[in-house]
TrEMBL record:
The keyword Iron does not apply. The keyword Nucleotide-binding does not apply. The chain crosses the membrane at residues 119-141, 148-171, 209-228. It comes from the Bacteria. This is Zinc metallopeptidase. Keywords: Membrane, Transmembrane, Transmembrane helix.
């Protein structure tokens, strides 16, 4: 039996999947709690203040539709905030906006992990889209024609491509952790959030950090499974 119906696959993936479910629940809980606490400024206002204090007056802030769709776009140098963050004066909004502003500041300062992450995006996208398909094609070819040959090479290529996804996830962790660290420090330094109110911001950003950890563990566990299940086929070449 092979992926995705192999019970062994779920043995590898069950722990990170459970962690992801727990983290997503904590994010929803932290966001809901912090959304009910009024802040001194809107999410857009907080982001604008932090960007301007870093000299990034030319980085625009745009609203974007959806929930939790906030992001900084390094290719267009624009920060986009979701409807629940852009014009909302809540501690959840300012925490998320400050986190995204942290990414813009990282970009301006050429923060090394962010530079590496941006360079790794094409490889991660290609590996995520085609790695599994190439691997499974190689497996079926090896079953039809016997060990060795093109089937083994495709299996090896598929695993190598998916390793690009794992690399992206690993380098993404310090990028996200650093953005949250910057956000927490600057929110207090600029008196946007008081030290007493930081527990609400921490509830949002810390739980979000666990979702990144869970995503990384899922990618690592998937690659470990692929090596366990298909590594023998690739070695037959």
């Amino acid at each position: 039996m092979i992926f995705p119906f192999d019970p062994v696959y779920f043995m590898f993936l069950l722990p990170p999947m459970l962690l992801a479910m727990w983290a997503q629940g904590k994010v929803r809980e932290g966001y809901a709690t912090a959304s009910r606490v009024r802040a001194r400024i809107t999410g857009r206002g907080a982001a604008r203040l932090l960007l301007d204090s870093a000299g990034l007056h030319d980085v625009p802030i745009e609203p974007i539709r959806g929930h939790m769709t906030d992001h900084y776009d390094p290719s267009h140098k624009v920060l986009r905030l979701s409807e629940g963050v852009y014009d909302q004066p809540s501690l959840a909004a300012v925490g998320i906006a400050a986190h995204e502003a942290g990414h813009a500041i990282q970009d301006a300062q050429h923060y090394a992990p962010l530079v590496i992450r941006n360079l790794a995006v094409p490889a991660a996208q290609f590996g995520g889209n085609f790695g599994m398909g190439i691997l499974l094609l190689g497996f079926f070819l090896s079953q039809a024609s016997g060990p060795g040959g093109i089937g083994a090479l495709l299996c090896l290529a598929g695993m190598a491509l998916f390793a690009g996804v794992v690399f992206f996830q690993l380098v993404n962790l310090p990028v996200e952790f650093d953005a949250s660290r910057r956000a927490k420090r600057q929110l207090v330094e600029h008196r946007i959030v008081s030290p007493e109110e930081m527990k609400y911001v921490n509830g949002v950003l810390n739980s979000a950090a666990w979702t990144y950890v869970a995503g990384t563990l899922q990618a690592v566990a998937t690659l470990a499974y692929l090596i366990f299940r298909f590594g023998g086929v690739a070695r037959d070449d």
